[in-house]
Design a protein that fits this description.
alpha/beta, 230 residues, Rossmann fold, 5 strands, globular, 9 helices
Length: 230
């Protein structure tokens, strides 16, 4: 049996924003089960916790990952690392160090790692980042989603430096926005409001069932094209 652990924040957890059946973890598992023989078997484990940063994920690694004995770990962090609260915010430099440590810990278990970039934030819908104290904090990037872009690049650079597989979720959502513009669904993809059916309009950050399907598809593509379940 091959065991995949999806390790991350509320995007990985999915609940209560979508039904458990519609989370990318469950969608991915169903598609992979259809692909392998009964003798091989694939199980996907959801180890997402809402509001969690990479530092908090690192602190629960033994409890959540080591005991699972995974073959493959999908790391999804970043959306809480950019938060303005002092007890939450993780600098880009520390974020990179946390990712390296998580990778090393997975390697010690004999597990492969897929680094996942976060999905975008739709600033127009993200009231949280428009509060005066938060808005001031994000000015150094321009806006909240610009901070997501920087942290996504940290993940890309980390994956490249470690020669590890990368599932670029941010780029997939961006490509979907451009596709919608091309099809006449919006005038300018760059404000990302055209992704309203993929990211919830009540918070601008959590994926809908369609968004989770997009994430699952990208993970599936990386897993099968790089033959990570061999």
């Amino acid at each position: 049996m091959k065991k995949i652990v999806c390790f991350g924040d509320s995007v990985t957890l999915g609940i209560p924003y979508v039904h458990e059946h519609d989370t990318f973890v469950r969608v991915l598992e169903r598609r992979l089960i259809e692909r392998v023989t009964q003798e091989e078997r694939v199980v996907c484990v959801n180890e997402g916790i809402g509001g969690e940063t990479s530092a908090e994920g690192l602190a629960r690694f033994e409890k959540s990952i080591t005991r699972r004995e995974p073959n493959l770990v999908c790391l999804e962090f970043g959306l809480n690392d950019i938060r303005y609260e002092p007890d939450k915010h993780v600098t880009p430099e520390q974020f990179a160090r946390n990712l390296h440590t998580l990778y090393e810990k997975c390697n010690e278990l004999g597990a492969q790692v897929i680094f996942m970039t976060p999905n975008p934030i739709i600033n127009t819908f993200h009231v949280y980042s428009q509060m005066p104290i938060a808005e001031e904090f994000y000015k150094k990037w321009g806006n909240c989603n610009d901070a997501v872009i920087e942290y996504a690049q940290v993940i890309r650079d980390t994956a490249q430096s470690l020669s590890a597989p990368l599932c670029d979720i941010y780029a997939a959502f961006e490509a979907k926005a451009i596709e919608i513009e091309f099809q006449g669904g919006c005038f300018d993809w760059r404000d990302l409001t055209c992704l309203a059916s993929y990211l919830r309009v009540d918070d601008g950050v959590h994926p809908t069932a369609l968004g989770h399907e997009l994430i699952a598809r990208e993970l599936y593509r990386v897993i099968v094209t790089e033959d990570l379940l061999k």
